[in-house]
Predict the structure.
Amino acid sequence: MLIIGICGGTGSGKTTVVNKILDILPANHVAILSQDSYYKDSSNISVEARKSINFDHPDAIEFDLLLNHINELKKGNAIEKPIYSYITCTRSDETIPIESKDVILVEGILLFTDERVRNICNIKVFVDAPADERLLRVIKRDTIERGRNIEQTLDRYLETVKPMHEQFIEPTKRFADIIVPLGGENMVAINILASTIRQKLGLTKHQDLNSIFH
């Protein structure tokens, strides 16, 4: 089994890189875990109090559960991945079943702040992008997907996203095996990543996972 950790700032292009990797590897051999699914449930506090949650601080993540799920997948066991809503800041009663696969992709902005998660990853990737590009992506995402207006998004960026990025996320770049500048637009870096994955799996350029696992 190969565990690939993909980290990077909010709006850096991690999802695009993940999708590029999925283009390389057969989907039925890959399981994906997103750190966003493991935000702590806040149903025990008031709706007003939830507005002050700092989603960019490591304390917001239930790393123990994430690590437990990665270990279960390593053992070949299925897990029940949580469903988290940014709108209500709570977890759903429902979960998503995830089967163990040959490749586990784990992605999230704070992934490498936890030493245990870093150590369990066979390949650590940091997706980098200029701050202004990340801000534009954050504005687009938060206004469309998370029910915030532009003013709320900018306030949040200045109060939490930017300082937390500088304090917690940017420093974890030093742990990366591969850095992908310019996010999903950097096909040279993504091709290097693809070659590294193939090498780790013992694949040639034209082989797929079926040829080595079956």
Notes: The mean pLDDT is 86. Strands lie at 2-8, 30-34, 79-85, 90-98, 103-107, 123-127, 178-180. The chain has eight helices and seven strands. The helical segments are 14-24, 47-50, 63-74, 115-120, 131-145, 150-169, 187-201, 210-213.
